[in-house]
Every structure is written in C-alpha cells, then in structure tokens.
Amino acid sequence: MADYFSYQDSRLCVEQVPLADIAQQFGTPCYVYSHTALVDGYRQFESAFAERKHLICYAVKANPNLAILHQFAWLGAGFDVVSGGELQRVLAAGAGAGKVVFSGVGKTEAEMRLALDTKILCFNVESGVELLRLNKVAGSMGKIAPVSLRVNPDVDAMTHPYIATGLRQNKFGVAYTEALDLYRKAAELPHLRVAGIGCHIGSQLTETGPFVAAAEKIRALVEKLSAEGVILEHIDLGGGLGIRYHDETPPSTTDYIGALLTAMQSRSEKIIVEPGRALVGNAGVLLTRVEYLKHGEEKNFAIVDAAMNDLMRPSLYDAWHHIQPVLRRAMPMQQYEVVGPVCETGDFLGHARELAIVQGDLLAVMSAGAYGMSMSSNYNSRPRAAEVMVSGNVVQLIRERETVHQLFAGEKTFLL
Ligand code: LLP
Fold this sequence. Notes:
Layout: E1 5-8, E2 11-14, E3 17-18, H1 19-26, E4 30-34, H2 35-49, E5 54-59, H3 66-75, E6 78-81, H4 84-92, E7 100-102, H5 109-117, E8 122-125, H6 128-140, E9 145-152, E10 174-175, H7 179-188, E11 192-198, H8 209-227, E12 234-236, H9 253-263, E13 270-273, H10 277-280, E14 284-295, E15 300-304, H11 313-317, E16 323-325, E17 334-339, E18 348-355, E19 362-365, E20 386-391, E21 394-399, H12 404-408
Bound molecules: ligand LLP.
C-alpha cells in the first residue's frame, strides 16, 4: 500500500499524482485507484501458482467498475459473479463468459438462462433445490449446465460474523454430510454435467489455518468422489484472503496460495480461487474534504463530505480504515471523530483519530478499494461518488459522479 499511496514532500500522492490535484479536477467525495496496485496484486496471484493449473476468478462484488473488470480480463482473469447484473458487467467489460463462475444461494431462472446462453464456465450450486431448478431450466433450453457444488465445510473462518460463511449455521453451500449424495443425484440429472467442487468460508481471513482446514475437507470429498468414478475438472477454494487495514498481519499471497497448493498436492484438478478484497482493497482510497471542524462539548468532529452511504464498512462492521491527511501540516494534532453529513449517529468513517487539519483540508480514507463503491447507496439522496484511476502520472475518470437527477429519473407521481 505504501508504494502506491505515499507522501512526496508533505503531499499524499497516488503513484505520481497528488491526491489534491484529483480532488480539484473531479471533486469530492471520490474513489481513487492505483492501476499499478491492481496489476501487481493480480501478478502476485499468478506467480504464486507457478506451474499448477489454475484460474483466478476475481470476485466482482468487491469492486465491479468496468475499468477494473476490463483490466483483470486483460490480465487473463476469470470472474466470480453472484447475479445476472454482475455477469452483464463482465460481458460489458469485454470479457468472455467462458471463465465465469456463478455463485450465490438464490439464482433465479432468468439468471440461469442468461448464464446458460452466454456459456459460463460453471454454476456454483448451493442447494439440492437449486440443482433441480438448474436441471429444469437447462433442459428447457436444450442445454447441459456445468455444475460444481459449493460445499459448506463447517470451518470457523475466525472473522467478523457477518462475513463468515463456512459454518454449519450459515445459509451458504450444501452440508458437508450431504455433498456425496447430492453429487450422485447431480450425476443422474440429464441436463447437468458435474464439473467441479468448491467452498468459500468467509472474507478478511488473516491466517492460513482455516483455509487449509477447509481445503483438506474438500480434498477428502474429492478423493471419495473419484473412488466412485466422479471425475472433476476443477476445485474452487473461494476467496477470503484478508488485507491489512490497521494492524492485521494476513499471509502474503504467496504464502496463502502456497498453503492451498500444499493441501492439494495429491490432486491434479485445476485450482480456482475467487479473490476480491486481496486484489482491490489496498488499491483504492476514498478522497473526501473536511467541510467543518466542529468542537462539541465532549468530542471534536471533522465533518467530511463522504458518509456511510459512500463507505459503509465502518458503520456496518465497525471496520477500521486509516484516515490520512492529504497535506501534512506542521501543527499540533487534535483528536477527531471523522463523520459524514448523513443523519445517523452510526454515520462515521473513523473514531478518535489524531489529525492536524483545518477546515477545507482533504482526507484519504485508506484501503477503500474493496466493498467501498460496490456497497455504496443513495441514502439521504446523496449521488454516488466519482471514481478515478491513476497509472504513473496518467489520470482518468472511470465513473462519473452521479447527478441528483439520475437518482429520481425513474420515479413517477402517483395519480388517482
Ligand atoms: N467468493 C464468494 C462466493 C464470496 O461470497 C466472496 C465474498 C468472495 C469470493 C470474495 O471474498 P474476498 O476475497 O473479497 O474476501 N462486504 C464485506 C465482505 C463481504 C464478502 C462477501 N463474499 C466487507 O466489506 O468486508
């Protein structure tokens, strides 16, 4: 992160461009991404796999901007999508569907049809009822659907409960104990082709242990399946590699992939992974301007022009994001609650931050490239932020700031 966003003299820059220049040109709030960080992040995954057959399916939900999808497609990535909308984005970015896996517990018939029409690589099926629906939809189209069961390995990811997905009590995947039976059923359904197996145990994991535990459970199933003559093309080990927001020490990409490959050493199937956050999280910041410094009775507030609608993670998960001044000032620090203008007490970006700032200064909320823009909303009728990509000294707008008019363009007066 330090390499892509760093102080040059006292000015915080993205690659070679001062963030203040970007704020001046495109306004705030604004998401700013380092192109080099995206490319380097992807290449680290690629090189970690070395000679092993693999496919890196970027989890579109982390950041679905077309420019980002296009970039990963160009680098050779596949994609993990969880809706027809995400699949259409992948296609709109110019990527083929041939490297797309479709996850999610609630695929509709329309989504299945779209995915079959566009010939995706595989459906990551999450229940027996979904298998039946997919078989029916594929049959009605005269097609054969490639399937992989997402197995819930019942492993504790040791992460925030809202983003742990691999426990028995979670809604995701098919139960470990039922997986073999479901494979037998799938093999008998005429419009399905068993292609793989998968799991995804959670997000923002900071240790390899749970990944390895899940991979080993999956490997045991693969061995049983192959003993029964069910031959799989791929094993999908999901996403979930964490990043450093504060003082976490997640494994490096090399160590993480290395641990997965060790667990899969005895197998020759292609390995798929679905990283989201690890590819984009530290490649982006949310740039915001201090509108007011308000000195309350108990606390000082830095009221900025970004809010929970722009970056929901602090409000939703109590997540920590570093907040850096865009201009380093030689003045004493003060402690601030960094808050937005939205009318909720839960609207904060950071608590008790030591900052040396004056009204009108810019702040960068760090590590905001993943689940930032993608989870933003229009709450309080706030248009969504612009997005800008930088490579070296090249700066390009990759999403225009939304206009208020766009927010209500589809609304109609109710007339009796
Ligand atoms: N594959 C599947 C099936 C997933 O559900 C997810 C994330 C991923 C891959 C990518 O996981 P990653 O590599 O990014 O950890 N909004 C939350 C994170 C939700 C993650 C949902 N699933 C946050 O802001 O922390």
